[in-house]
Design brief:
Elements lengths: L1 H22 L4 E4 L14 H11 L3 E4 L6 H5 L4 E8 L6 E8 L5 E4 L3 E3 L4 H15 L10 H10 L12 E2 L4 E2 L9 E14 L2 E5 L5 E7 L5 E6 L2 E8 L2 E8 L2 E10 L1
Parallel strand pairs: 1-2, 1-3, 9-15
Antiparallel strand pairs: 3-4, 4-5, 4-6, 7-8, 9-10, 10-11, 11-12, 12-13, 13-14, 14-15
């Protein structure tokens, strides 16, 4: 029996170590304002509790309806996505805290948080707290922007040139912040027609030819986009849509006429 317990402990330790190696490559966690298993936003304050938990463990954490850092808005794969897995039954409330990458791959799952309390609010809170507490066994330590970019590239995530961290070779530290970049303005008067695809839209001209594919992010009216050799972000500003991308390290802002 002692050998079995020791084996389980070693396996659990190895799993936690492997999970830490993955999550250490991410600085940000995005948490939904509303969980799928509730009709109300921040029901029982569980979304706030989950967000605070990831902040406590060292992540920079945002709700999905907040203004996101530019590197996440430009590429949603720069963040992990936190959620609760509700595995409750008739006799108990059971919760797991999970982290997934931008492709929906689970990279971290907490231990089981369980409560047999009959009062619903107290039960969910107790179960969620228990699941969160199990994460203290996971050691999170962000590897830094340069190492994170290298990891993401190894996973097939291509970062725009402006997002790639610049490193001072003398001290191996990130270079100083550059002055704000003002985009060149160009206008595209040709109407593009939005056709739904998995996780977003493809924009087609009157030829018809696919000009751009845009994929949903956690931010409303903001999409990661690529097409015709350009990668960037499509977003709505006021009543207008813009496609922003970099050309020779210069930010270009292209106004789009989109018909949904």
């Amino acid at each position: 029996m002692k050998k079995l317990v020791l084996l389980i402990a070693l396996l659990a330790s190895g799993l936690l170590s492997a999970q830490s190696e993955v999550i250490n490559n991410y600085k940000y966690v995005i948490v939904p304002r509303k969980f799928d298993f509730f009709r109300e936003a921040d029901r029982f304050k569980l979304n706030t509790l989950t967000k605070m938990a990831f902040e406590h463990y060292g992540f920079k954490t945002y709700f999905d309806d907040e203004q996101l850092p530019v590197e996440v808005a430009m590429n949603r794969c720069n963040a992990l996505y936190g959620n609760l897995d509700n595995a409750s039954g008739m006799l108990s409330t059971t919760i797991y805290v999970v982290l997934k990458d931008c492709n929906g791959k689970e990279v971290l799952r907490s231990g089981k948080g369980k409560s047999k309390t009959k009062e619903l609010q107290k039960a969910y809170y107790e179960a969620t707290r228990a699941a969160i507490n199990s994460l203290k066994e996971v050691s999170y330590n962000y590897v830094g922007d340069a190492a994170a970019a290298q990891y993401l590239a190894s996973q097939g995530v291509i970062l725009p040139a402006a997002q790639s961290p610049t490193v001072n070779a003398a001290n191996n530290a990130p270079s100083q912040m550059q002055p704000e970049v003002k985009p060149q303005q160009t206008v595209n008067e040709n109407t593009l027609f939005a056709q739904p695809i998995a996780n977003g839209y493809q924009l087609v001209d009157s030829t018809p030819k696919v000009v751009l594919k845009m994929y949903r992010t956690s931010q409303p009216d903001s999409y990661s986009a690529n097409g015709e050799g350009k990668s960037g972000v499509v977003f709505k500003k006021g009543n207008d849509w813009f496609f922003e991308y970099y050309v020779n390290d210069k930010l270009v802002s292209e106004k789009l006429s989109i018909k949904f």
